[in-house]
Amino acid sequence: MELSAVLMRLLWLSAALAASSSSRRPRSAEAPQSSSPFGPVWPLPRSIRISPDRLQLAPRRFQIVHGAGSSAGPQCSLLQDAFRRYYEYLFGYSKHQKHEEKSLANTELAALQIIITSEEPDCDKYPDISSDEEYNLSIGEPVAVLKAEKVWGALRGLETFSQLVFEDDYGTFFINASDITDFPRFAHRGILIDTARHFLPLKSILTTLDAMAFNKFNVLHWHIVDDQSFPYQSITFPELSAQGSYSYNHIYTPTDVRLVIEYARLRGIRVLPEFDTPGHTQSWGKGQKDILTPCYNGEHPTGSYGPINPILNATYEFMAKFFKEVGTVFPDEYIHLGGDEVDFSCWKSNPAVKEFVRKQGVWYSYTKLESYYIDKMLDVVSSLNKKSIVWQEVFDNGAELSSDSVVEVWMGNSYEEELRKVTKEGLPAILAAPWYLDYISYGQDWMKYYKVEPLSFSGCETQKKLVLGGEACLWGEYVDATNLIPRLWPRASAVGERLWSSKNVTDLEDAYSRLSEHRCRMLRRGIAAQPLNVGFCRHEVRNP
Amino acid sequence: MELSAVLMRLLWLSAALAASSSSRRPRSAEAPQSSSPFGPVWPLPRSIRISPDRLQLAPRRFQIVHGAGSSAGPQCSLLQDAFRRYYEYLFGYSKHQKHEEKSLANTELAALQIIITSEEPDCDKYPDISSDEEYNLSIGEPVAVLKAEKVWGALRGLETFSQLVFEDDYGTFFINASDITDFPRFAHRGILIDTARHFLPLKSILTTLDAMAFNKFNVLHWHIVDDQSFPYQSITFPELSAQGSYSYNHIYTPTDVRLVIEYARLRGIRVLPEFDTPGHTQSWGKGQKDILTPCYNGEHPTGSYGPINPILNATYEFMAKFFKEVGTVFPDEYIHLGGDEVDFSCWKSNPAVKEFVRKQGVWYSYTKLESYYIDKMLDVVSSLNKKSIVWQEVFDNGAELSSDSVVEVWMGNSYEEELRKVTKEGLPAILAAPWYLDYISYGQDWMKYYKVEPLSFSGCETQKKLVLGGEACLWGEYVDATNLIPRLWPRASAVGERLWSSKNVTDLEDAYSRLSEHRCRMLRRGIAAQPLNVGFCRHEVRNP
Questions:
Q1: Which domain of life is it from (chains A, B) (predicted)?
Q2: Does residue B32 belong to the interface with chain A, where contact is any CB pair within 8 Å?
Q3: pLDDT for res B539
Q4: Is B476 on the interface with A (CB under 8 A)?
């Protein structure tokens, strides 16, 4: 299905030559549009053929419509919303000509027709790990046709279509006749945000979802609570946020959460909630009595608290109720249980915990105690007919993971070895380790993220297939609404292409050219993505 | 004049105790207001005495006015503008009570009276290196009195006053009775912005000036053009920006420049223009024929160009005219001539330049050729009755610097040794080397900037006095309007306090506490300063 790069360049050359003689569009210095044979498409589709024939789009006539034979129609509000959104991305940032648009005979693209081929288009469903995102885009006179089994593929195809349209100096819009077949390499392509170290206003989260859609990400991993604060407003246990949030201004109400989930759904993005336990839970203790382990100095409580108290029945009763609510509020089939960085010192200091461990026998350990706790959490999630995702320590410490539990690999030192081990056990894995975007450094670090090959570990094909994808993680210690967007974009875009495009898409020069244009496109669409290097965009950031 | 830290803490303790019993204001987690004995003042004044007596401010009655005996009155638009601005900072972000404000008898502060004591208040002047910024602030019932020789001190005092006012949970404003005497440690406290690697919209520059005033910076070092682009629109040579800018959207018109200078003046900030030559000038060559040196490969021109061509009379005629304009457009008594990082390879390849060097004799060198060029530029600036600032290479290479030329030290490897050498020669110096804020790293790097002691080099008192101050430099390779503000603030604030406050103000814990609150205050005032660490602000950033 895929054309070779050499053939692509030949095809493009003719297109570029034909275009250069008639177009006087000023190029951005970051990336002349023609410097990549693929145009400024990001991430690169699996197969793309671009012809030299240029078609004009007239904003006042051009339509995005349901095609004949599509199983989706005007009642599919997900698509209706997407049509309006992409019309705006295509033409919205430009001043529309008020005069009659000249029709250039025989070269006009009149419409983009969307055809959903499956009998069940999924208009009112939530995306999940197995959602079909494949699409086929055929752009030619008089109409372009975007075919997909499901609405999810249509969303991805709309994004690609919108990236192929360009505007010349006179405000005229064009697209080259093209054929594209596209589908993702990995099913799980996530962005982790952390709303506990700093609260992120709703608007920042929605803007992040916009940018994710522009980069074909499909999972918002919402690390919603942590030691520092508990902004999630629980219906069952409202004291958790009443006491554990930074303030009453720093809370996500049930309405906020529903809004995020629906905004994400409309963009084909899953919202994966993480309620990290038994460590990283200091804020839980403020609104829930006895949920944390009291730490001791000898025989006396110090007044400090450690991880969740794993030896009380009350703990598990509370957790069962709490996660039941989480399972209802968040429609995703996965719940992230955390399980990272559990400090045993407080457990070891507490007489009752010590006694509990001692009673289990000499073979027992605090690592086993942690697994004991996690196993119970895994059971809770199972009982909700949901699946669990856990950080890698849970696997490393030998918890009893069912074969549909997913292990997220985050430790940077030897993630390839960890991937090998996890998949060797037949467990699915998600890779986060090389993509901790909170670590910043001078220069073009996007290249480092781009060069990662998630399947470079040693293992058989069956093992490789167990890698569901990866996540770019922006932990919040030094990030809040002031710097979230420029710190995340376009650095996360590098991860986006790695997880979507073919394994052999590794040309850094070509990527730089496309990504520079893609970054300028994000600016036009209201995403304050920071620059890759020196240069400019034709349309700079709005409201700097 | 200065109270000892121990005494301060004692004084504060009583104040804090008195306040804590009656105030239920929620504290920001980043810095409970009471955790510094000085309150959230940044930079710390030279002498501050805070009493436990709290005075109320009623927004609808409180006034900032000219005091009796002041040489400035309502005709002083600089102060009128500042009064309005600081009234807004004091009360603007809060919802004013519409109901009658309760008067708490005997505890209300009715007004802040500004008294300019010099016969010439400088209302219509530009600030300069010797502008007097000292002020005395006496806050007590029924009015506070801010005394300063000149308007510049009044501006600094207004900022300090505004930082001492706080709002309780019920929306009531208070200030503690206090006495402050304050003046800067260094006269030159600059922020370098680079509008050539990326264009910065006017709004970003004005916002930067706002933030500078909040941190008592007084010099905007405007590195306005460089290799990559020439956004400065010259009246005399309009082709320079017509050809050398990124696009017609990426130009500073004469009106823009005037606006920046006036906006800065109203905040007591000088605008120091830098037109860097003979290197860093690729963009000049696009709009000015023959100004750059043609590079050669053997006997043939390569089509590339090097630094300014130093052997043509036309070069010097052009430069004389150009800098005459610069001297007129920018009122500051200093012009920054650049002079850094000159690459000799192109000069060495050019037959005419080679011949020029050969003719001077065996003792001549390309370093001397560079000094020959710079000496002529120094003469041009002198002839305009202005003074020059140059980067350190100009000094290192032995140009003939007059005793009022300033050397800016930027090389990181041994800046103390360089400061010693420069001042040993009797030349004034500005320190930039340890404060290159474009270099980023994970974590709280503001501490590194804070710990720098600019006078740590070995030298006599006379030498130390020659250090005029320093600059925080945010070079623009990876910075544009998307990330300028959060990357600059509050990191540059650390430099701001180092350059303003006493040498012995080095307590990191106290600084963290005050800076965290100061950062929250910047957010309230519309500066998207990034977080120092985990936590929150009561009022988060506007329009994230």
A1: Eukaryota
A2: no
A3: 86
A4: yes
Chain center to CA of A410: 16
Per-residue pLDDT of B249-264, as tens digits, reads 999 999 999 999 999 9
Sign of the CA dihedral with A276 first, then A282, A287, and A293 last: positive
**Rounded Cα distance, A23 and A30, in Å:** 18
Q: Decide: pTM greater than 0.90.
A: yes
- Chain A residue with minimal CA distance to B532? A478
ipTM for this model: 0.90
pLDDT digits (tens, 9 = 90+) for B517-538: 999 999 999 999 999 999 999 8
The residue of chain B with its CA nearest to that of A227 is B534
Q: What are the tokens at A316? A: 């598990």
pLDDT digits (tens, 9 = 90+) for B43-79: 999 999 999 999 999 999 999 999 999 999 999 999 9
What is the H or E stretch that residue B334 is in?
strand B334-338
Q: How far is CA B213 from CA A136, B156, B208, B266, in A?
A: 56, 8, 9, 10
Tokens 């420049």: give the residue: B257
- Work out the number of other CB atoms within 10 angstroms of the CB of residue A319: 20
Nearest CA in chain B to A206: B544
pLDDT digits over B9-45, tens only? 434 433 333 333 333 333 343 333 447 777 899 999 9
Task: Tell whether A199 lies on the interface with B, counting CB pairs under 8 A.
Answer: yes
Note the helical H segments in A23-142.
77-91
Is residue B512 predicted with pLDDT exceeding 50? yes
Q: What are phi and psi of A407, to 5 degrees?
A: -105, 125
Q: Which residues of chain B neighbour A486 with C-beta distances below 8 Å?
A: 482-483, 486
Q: How far is B55 from chain A (nearest CA, A)?
A: 27
Subunit contact B482:A26, Cβ cutoff 8 A: no
Strands B188-194, B219-223: pairing kind:
parallel
Max Cα separation, chain A?
A: 90
Q: Does residue B140 contact residue B108 with C-beta atoms inside 8 Å?
A: no
Q: Determine contact, residues B338/B390, Cβ cutoff 8 Å.
A: yes
> Cα dihedral sign for A133, A136, A141, A143?
negative
- CB contact (8 A) between residue A483 and residue B528: yes
Whether A530 and B478 lie within 8 Å, measured CB to CB: yes
